[in-house]
Every structure is written in structure tokens, then in C-alpha cells.
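About this split. The held-out portion is used to measure sequence recovery: a designer receives only the C-alpha cells and must propose an amino acid at every position. Recovery is the fraction of positions where the proposal matches the reference. Here is one held-out target exactly as it appears in the evaluation file.
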């Protein structure tokens, strides 16, 4: 259902560049407006490069840190089938991080530098991964809601102007679509189970609903990067439009599950053909992205530990590469 959006043609988003733009900037913007893909060796404004490195690396960090909340349940999955599914889903997230780090590296920033930015708190990752997963139902809620929200945001990124990012997103979206379905199927099993299981599914929906809406970022009026990113064809659909699409698709799914979306102001507006929903608590979002969410400290501690524990692997790989280089040089003499 979600990946059908991959085929939507680009909309009309031509916005004039600033007066006094240099000829190469005008040529660059003309290529963007003509829906040409920008490739790593092409000329690009420094701001475009910087914006992409910021967004793609933050996206990669989100996939990477995003393994932790669900990874927490791999050893406690309730059956062999659930364990195998969860294990491969979490491995997929690691793969997404790798595609994205590779895409960002084509812009001239090394993976080591991006990793350093994450570990020293200079780079963000998605707010959503700073929430806890106290029950098995949280694993279902993440697949259903978090992967569902992620796909909504990522489908338009498949048409983004930077070739390596757009191509990485196509594959990621296909996998996310499967992730969303497995989460929904897990929620369906719980909501058709015992009263206790259904209550567990409802409690997980209560915990993840509002943070999922925050994933799309600030309202358009408070989004400092949106105008320029739209002009550059990085952003194709605004934060608010994507959030609305997500609500419109997800509320009927909650109805099907027999669960209640925790929003007393939620109502269908027949005239607009959309759901109206209540106010988002942006102060909570601000707190989470400033490092004060429920699990920020824990998540970063886990990532730092993984980095430190992996030091011997990096050293061994470097020693092996040096040995290979030396052998090649010797053979060439
Ligand atoms: N969390 O001007 P705005 C997954 C920041 S993982 C934290 O609207 P922009 C998965 C924003 O960075 C997939 N920060 O910015 C993995 C900016 O701060 P800086 C996650 C946020 O970039 C495992 C400031 O707020 N998806 O699927 O135009 C298991 C102003 O915002 C957030 C992505 O990463 C947030 N939620 O638009 C399961 C999508 N929102 O950088 C699933 C890729 C905003 O100036 N990213 N900020 O310090 C994007 O599409 C865009 O960057 C955003 C924000 C729509 C998120």
C-alpha cells in the first residue's frame, strides 16, 4: 500500500533562486527544476552539499540507533517465528544505515567523521528512538507506527534530487513496507488475543501515537530548512502534509484492530476528506531532541559501548589491509 507512492510523478515545485545567483547556481537550479538527478561529481552549491550531509547522516544515525528499542526484545520474542522475523528486521535497519552512510560519503564526509558527530552529540537522530519498549506490544507498535511513519516520509525521498540518496531510498522503502506489515500483523494477533493481550496492544498504541506524529518534524511554519530543501528538490512533500497523510492512513487501521487512537480531538472531516487531530505537545519534542527524552542517555551509552567494543575489529581490519597493501607492493617490485 505504501510503496505504490513510489510511482507518483514529481509535482510542480519550481521556486525562483535568489537574485544575483551565479551562472553555475542558475544551471544547477535549472537541472533540479527539470527533475535531473544530481550525482556526486556534479557541481553543487556548498549549502546543498551541507544540507544533504546533515539530513542523510541524521537519517543513517536514526536507522542505526533505531535498532536498539526493538533489539531489546530479540532474546525475549515469544516464539521462534517472531524471533526470526524480529532478528531479520533489526538486521535490515543496520543495512539501511549502511546504504545511507555510503550515500553520505559520496558527498565527501567520511563515515568515521559522521560516527564521531553522532557519538559526541553534534548530530541528531530521530526523536522517536528515545522512547522505551517495556512490553512485547511495543515491538508491534514500532513496526506498525514508526515504520509506517518512516515510509510515508521516505517515499517522496525516493524522488529526491540527489541520485545516491534517492536510489538508497527505493530499496529501503521496499523493506520498510514489509516491516510495517509485520508490525501490523503482530498488533492484529495481540488485539485478537486475550483481554490482557489486547490491553497491552492498546497501551503500546497510547505510548507510540504522539511520538510517531512528532517524527515528521516541526509544523511547516516552524521548519527552518523546509523552504530551501524544497527549492533544491530534497523535500518533495512538507512535514505537515506527510503527518496528515499518516493520520489519514493509520486511523482506519487502528479501527480495524479495534484499538482507540489516544486523541479526544480526533474526528473525520467529511468536507476536507481528512481526519482532524489534536495539538501536538511540541515542548516534549523539543526536550527529546535536546537530549532529555526518556532514553536519550541510555541510547547514546549503548552506541558508545558498541563503538568501543568494536575497536579491535577496526584495528584488525586496518592491519589486514596494510598487510595486503604491503604484499601487493612487494609483488609489484
Ligand atoms: N527527530 O527544518 P526541519 C526508521 C530537526 S529510521 C529529531 O523540518 P528538515 C526506523 C531537524 O533535523 C528513519 N530531530 O528539518 C529505524 C532540524 O534540526 P537541525 C528516520 C528532528 O531536515 C529503526 C530541526 O529539527 N527517518 O525508519 O528539513 C526501526 C528543524 O526541522 C526531527 C528520517 O531520518 C525528529 N523527528 O526536516 C524502525 C527521515 N524532525 O538538523 C524504523 C529523513 C526534525 O537543524 N529526514 N528534526 O539541527 C527527513 O526527512 C528530514 O530531515 C525531517 C526534518 C523531515 C526529519
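Reference sequence for scoring:
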Amino acid at each position: 500500500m505504501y510503496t505504490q507512492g513510489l510511482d507518483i510523478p514529481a509535482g510542480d515545485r519550481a521556486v525562483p533562486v535568489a537574485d544575483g545567483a551565479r551562472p553555475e547556481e542558475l544551471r544547477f537550479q535549472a537541472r533540479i527544476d527539470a527533475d535531473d538527478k544530481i550525482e556526486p561529481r556534479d557541481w553543487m552549491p556548498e549549502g546543498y552539499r551541507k544540507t544533504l550531509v546533515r539530513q542523510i547522516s541524521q537519517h543513517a544515525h536514526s536507522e542505526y540507533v533505531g535498532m536498539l528499542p526493538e533489539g531489546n526484545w530479540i532474546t525475549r520474542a515469544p516464539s521462534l517465528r517472531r524471533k526470526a522475523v524480529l532478528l531479520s528486521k533489526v538486521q535490515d535497519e543496520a543495512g539501511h544505515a549502511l546504504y545511507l552512510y555510503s550515500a553520505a560519503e559520496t558527498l565527501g564526509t567520511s563515515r568515521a567523521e559522521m560516527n564521531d558527530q553522532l557519538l559526541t552529540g553534534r548530530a541528531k537522530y530521530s526523536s522517536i528512538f528515545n522512547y522505551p519498549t517495556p512490553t512485547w506490544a511495543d515491538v508491534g507498535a514500532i513496526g506498525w507506527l514508526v515504520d509506517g511513519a518512516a515510509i510515508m516520509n521516505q517515499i517522496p525521498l525516493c524522488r529526491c534530487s540527489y541520485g545516491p540518496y534517492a536510489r538508497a531510498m527505493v530499496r529501503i522503502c521496499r523493506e520498510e513496507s514489509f516491516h510495517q506489515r509485520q508490525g501490523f500483523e503482530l498488533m492484529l494477533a495481540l488485539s485478537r488475543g486475550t483481554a490482557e493481550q489486547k490491553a497491552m496492544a492498546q497501551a503500546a498504541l497510547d505510548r507510540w501515537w504522539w511520538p510517531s506524529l512528532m517524527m515528521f518534524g516541526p509544523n511547516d511554519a516552524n521548519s527552518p530548512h523546509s523552504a530551501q530543501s524544497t527549492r533544491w528538490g530534497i523535500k518533495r512533500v512538507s512535514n505537515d502534509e506527510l503527518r496528515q497523510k499518516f493520520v489519514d492512513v493509520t486511523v482506519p487501521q487502528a479501527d480495524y484492530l479495534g484499538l482507540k487512537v489516544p486523541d479526544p480531538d480526533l474526528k473525520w472531516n467529511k468536507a476536507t476528506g481528512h481526519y482532524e487531530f489534536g495539538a501536538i505537545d511540541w515542548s516534549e519534542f523539543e526536550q527529546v531532541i535536546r537530549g532529555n527524552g526518556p532514553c536519550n542517555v541510555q541510547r547514546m551509552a549503548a552506541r558508545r559501548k558498541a563503538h568501543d567494543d568494536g575497536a579491535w575489529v577496526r584495528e584488525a581490519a586496518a592491519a589486514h589491509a596494510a598487510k595486503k597493501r604491503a604484499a601487493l607492493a612487494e609483488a609489484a617490485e
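Annotator remark: Residues 4 and 134 are 33 Å apart (CA to CA).
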